[in-house]
């Protein structure tokens, strides 16, 4: 297995060790130790021999590692930086790759690595929800199977595409109908109303909802996009959409109100109709008025979801946002949402989440980032039989 070219030279220090080992074994000491061909049991102490022996171990490897562990006092103490676990409940994998001029087949890791983040703002992104709402870039069946399991997939139809031609829309509806049945697709959306579009398209958006909603299943999280007219918080759009959805969506359906900008009245009305509604927040929180801030503060912590909505709403020092920017969303939410200060606290609704608050009564952004891990439960467990919140 070894040759003279495999760095088998025995140094003076190694020779001294092998001589002492021979004496310990009560074996004859050769005039010169040779590893290839091996002329003494003692030469098995050579690092090259040990490497080959370790590599040849099969199932026994774990046994030897556990049985003959390195004494703790000999192990160097290396500080390990631990970043808070987080989940991005809404980002666009396809659009972010395009905006970053990366390959359409690129990964979430490439996106995260493409945007530098300060050391004190880094997170451990354990899960994310990739939303596809543009029929032109829907994933194929094959690509869906290749997406890593820690990324949940949502399929929708952005209301701004309602102005497409009827023939084109019909083809896209059939494409959607086929893909939404795939088990990897656990989120239905984003879909909804967008009244920032010209009023002549509003009726088309409602017709679009009528075409898509019959495909909604209990196992899906319904992801809602709702925008009012420019300069408006969208109360009329939220209430109109709510009135419409009551006719087509069951009250027990889990709902994710994406990039929520509504007021407290809207929050109350939605929870009355759909008690399993959760509210997603983005960097737009920085621009909230008093009514929107009051809505945010009225929400139970378990209903808060953090979204990068990447590639949109970048931080001031970036051209394109990334799921790694959740620290900015958390900081914006923490600036308004009052929580009990503790060093470490665990919440059990409905899963363990580490929630970190510093001792000076100021929320650490890491706390709210960790809170977003609730979404992992929402998207992972929602299609379990008999599940209720």
Structural key phrases:
389 residues; alpha/beta; eight-stranded parallel beta sheet; two-stranded antiparallel ribbon; elongated; disordered C terminus
Write structural notes for this entry.
The chain is of the alpha/beta class. Helix content is 34%, strand content 15%. Strands 1-2-3-4-5-6-7-8 form an eight-stranded parallel sheet, sandwiched between helices. A two-stranded antiparallel ribbon has the order 9-10.
- State mean pLDDT (0 to 100 scale): 81
Unreliably modeled segments: 340-378, 381-389
Instruction: Calculate Rg over CA atoms.
Output: 29 Å
Largest sheet: 8 strands, parallel
Distance between the termini: 61 Å
Shape: elongated
Secondary structural class = alpha/beta
Strand arrangement across the biggest beta sheet: 1-2-3-4-5-6-7-8
Helix-strand string: HHHEHHEHEHEHEHEHEHEHEEHH
Given the structure, what is the number of helices? Answer: 14
Approximately how much helix is present in the residues?
Answer: 25-40%
Number of strands: 10
Taken as a percent bin, the fraction of beta residues is: 5-15%
